[in-house]
Amino acid sequence: MADTESRSSTFPDIVELNVGGQVYVTRLDTLTAVPDSLLWAKFTQSSPEELPKDGKGRFFFDRDGFLFRYVLDYLRDSELFLPEFFKERRRLQKEADFFQLPELSRRLAVPSGHSSPTEEGGESEEAELASPTTTTSSSSDRTPRSPGTGAGYITVGYRGSYTIGRDIQADAKFRRVARITVCSKICLAKEVFGDTLNESRDPDRPPDKYTSRYYLKYNFLEQAFDRLAEAGFHMVACNSTGTCSYASSDPGEDKVWTSYTEYVFSR
Hints:
Mean pLDDT is 77; it is low at 1-8 and 112-148. The radius of gyration is 23 Å and the shape is globular. It is α+β, with helices and mostly antiparallel strands. The protein is built from eight helices and ten strands. The chain has helices at residues 2-8, 28-31, 38-44, 68-77, 89-98, 102-108, 186-193, 221-230, and strands at residues 14-19, 22-27, 59-61, 153-164, 173-174, 180-185, 197-198, 210-216, 234-246, 255-266. A hairpin with an 8-residue loop joins strand 9 (234-246) and strand 10. The relative contact order is 0.11. Strands 4, 5, 6, 7, 8, 9 and 10 form a seven-stranded antiparallel sheet that branches.
C-alpha cells in the first residue's frame, strides 16, 4: 500500500491527457475514481516515466478522443448522460471495455432494437443503417458498397494562399492550407472519413441532419479524395474563387493571393 501511495503521489494533481489527438485536462482523483480500472492502474500502480507521452509531455492513449469525454464524465459523476440521437453506443461500450469500466459497459449494453429513454433518448445504433438515406444499390454502381450506405453529396472545400513578388517570374511562395472542410449529411461524412473527421465545431448532431462545420484532421486534399473514391464517390463539380491584396500598404510590395475551392462529390 505504501508503494502504491508513493507512486501515485508522483503524478500531479492536475493531469493533461492526449487521447487520440484530443487534449483533456482533469484531476488525478477523477482518473482514479474507479478502483481496478485501467486508468486507476496506470495512475496508481505506475510512475509518470512508465506511461507513454506525446511531444508536449501529455500522457497519451491511442483511443477514440471524442468518445473519451463520455468516459471522463462517467468517472466524474458515476452517471451516464448521452446526447439525444446518440448513434455510437456500441463504440462507446468498446471504449468502456478497454478502460475496464464494467458498470459503464453494462449500462451501454442495451438489447438490440431497444433504447434507454433515460440514457440515450434516441434509437438503437442499428437504426442508423436503416435511416431514410438508405437506397437500393443498382448494378451500375462502380464500387461495391456495404448494406446501409446510401446515395448523396459531399462537398470538400479548402482555403489556401500564396505570395507572388514583383518579379512574376520568381517562384510563388505557397502558404499552408488552413483547413479542409466537409459539408454533407452527418451519416455520410462519418461513413467516409471516420476517425479523421473533426466534429468539435458541430458535435452530437443526428445522423440524418446536415452540417457545414466539420473539417478533417489532415491537410492533404488527396487523402480526402482517396477516401471518397474508396467509398464509391465521384467528383461531379468544382468551383474556385480568388482575391488579391498587398502584403503591406505599399503597392510595390508582394501580392498575396487567397483562393477558396470546393469539390462536389456524388454517389
